[in-house]
Design brief:
470 residues; alpha+beta; 2',3'-cyclic nucleotide 3'-phosphodiesterase fold; seven-stranded mixed beta sheet; 14 helices; 20 strands; 34% helix
Length: 470
């Protein structure tokens, strides 16, 4: 697979799902809500989904802006959501509907489950509504067919800002520019005579940071960047997982400080320094620089998205489903915040120890294989000796191995020979049952229902008081 093809595959996985819908204007929405009174806090009543997860071929043949009639024939509700059933041959949905209202923390997609599991109450006189066909990316609705883009033009030499702008366009711009995710990147110092941003756009060519177009940040009244202009145009400027990228490009472009550190190694191996080096190495083929840097930005944003959206949702769901337990325990003069969670997500412990993830002092992660790894927040300086002794003593008991006569041997660092599956790492202040790649390490015999008690006893030093340093 070619390098750029691999990047395209990555972007396809990460990009937001587009959906086609029949959208109500305010007048039709008000008409619907006069008859069907909302019963939940969050009122929607804005569209009927025709198809979710559409591709470029679907968009090319879609009848943008076409006016259609929707026939509302029934209503259904429960303690989470409320929807109306729509009689139409436009939608590929098994149960065509319009979501009317939902409670907090429930998404509109719940209406599918609502209709499947509840009896629809027929409406005596069907409600006829007028709607308009459009495509949405979840943030904006498009009623006009987007321009097909085959090329993205940059000025000479890629910079962090312009490469970031390309990433945003290719990842989030499909609904605004057709085939933008497959567009080739080329470089022009000056535009062809007689052409400008608009005329080139009609030819399928999009300008970034050149030619005075919508994504050219030069000569703007306020200092900005090409990536910021793209983010604003795509209505993604407030996305939490893009904030670091946008702040970095602004700092690099406006102040020339992509890397603040004065350390020469930091500056050389920071992204700005590496892009500069790539520009010198590939001065005849600047498109290669874009190919090399895009996957790095993709990796950063993917991880930020996990931290800002995916992992908070995962933790919330696991707590609600009983797959995560939280509690506090006192160790000497310290109050420790602890979480035990079932997951195979290797990024989760780091997130949970961060401020965004709840600032947990101790994270015990139990994987589907039964392995348990216990990690701590470095700044808290937690003493794990009593806990590792408690774990090892419990394991000896479960294995029916005679108890250790000298209980303090249970606190040794590294491996304790009778129980090799538990490793006490003082360098990372963690207790690991195989780590992220357990290999041949056997999972613990400690049942998950006993973990809370073992952590509480071990961390509070009720089982064994560690030796005090001299």
């Amino acid at each position: 697979m070619k390098f750029f093809d691999m990047l395209y595959t990555m972007i396809q996985i990460f990009k937001p799902s587009l959906y086609a819908g029949a959208f109500l204007d305010e007048e039709n929405k008000e008409e619907l809500l006069k008859i069907i009174k909302p019963i939940h806090k969050n009122v929607k009543a804005d569209h009927l989904t025709l198809k979710f997860g559409i591709d470029s071929d679907y968009i090319k043949n879609f009848e943008f802006g076409k006016n259609v009639e929707l026939k509302v024939v029934g209503v259904v509700s429960d303690d989470k959501g409320q929807a109306v059933s729509v009689e139409t041959n436009l939608s590929e949905n098994k149960n065509p509907h319009i979501t009317i209202s939902i409670i907090d923390d429930v998404k509109v997609v719940y209406s599918n489950e609502l209709i499947e599991n509840n009896l629809i109450e027929k409406i005596e006189t069907p409600i006829i509504l007028s709607a308009r066909l459009g495509i949405s990316d979840g943030r904006k609705v498009f009623f006009e067919k987007p321009k097909t883009i085959s090329k993205i033009i940059l000025p000479v030499r890629p910079q962090p800002d312009t490469v970031s702008a390309i990433y945003l366009l290719k990842t989030f711009g499909t609904g605004h520019f057709l085939d933008i995710d497959k567009a080739k990147v080329e470089f022009l110092a000056t535009l062809p005579e007689g052409d400008n941003h608009s005329s080139l756009l009609d030819k399928g060519i999009l300008l970034v940071d050149v030619g005075g177009g919508i994504f050219d940040h030069h000569n703007k009244e306020e200092k900005t960047t090409a990536s910021a202009l793209v983010a604003n145009y795509l209505c993604i400027e407030k996305s939490l997982y893009l904030q670091k990228l946008l702040e970095y490009t602004y700092r690099d472009d406006v102040f020339g400080k992509g890397t603040i550190s004065d350390d020469q190694l930091d500056r050389a191996f920071g992204l700005s320094g590496l892009i500069s080096a790539l520009n010198k190495l590939h001065d005849k083929n600047p498109e290669k620089v874009v190919d090399y840097v895009l996957p790095l930005i993709e990796a950063h944003v993917s991880e930020e998205k996990k931290r800002a959206e995916d992992m908070p949702n995962e933790v919330e769901e696991k707590i609600a489903n009983g797959q995560a337990t939280t509690f506090t325990v006192k160790q000497r003069d310290k109050k420790l915040k602890v979480i035990i969670i079932e997951s195979d997500n290797t990024s989760l412990p780091g997130f949970l120890r961060s401020k965004l993830g709840g600032s947990y002092d101790v994270v015990a992660q139990r994987t589907p294989t039964g392995h348990v790894n216990i990690l701590t927040r470095p700044t808290k300086r937690i003493d794990l000796r009593s806990l590792v002794a408690t774990i090892r003593a419990s394991e000896l008991l479960l294995k029916k191995i005679p108890a250790e006569k000298d209980s303090r041997k249970l606190m040794i660092t590294g491996r304790y020979e009778p129980i090799p599956e538990w490793y006490y790492d003082t360098a990372t202040n963690s207790i690991q049952n195989g780590g992220t790649t357990p290999g041949d390490t056997k999972p613990t015999l400690i049942p998950k229902q006993s973990l809370s008690k073992i952590l509480e006893v071990g961390l509070s030093e009720k089982f064994l008081t560690p030796m005090r340093p001299n």
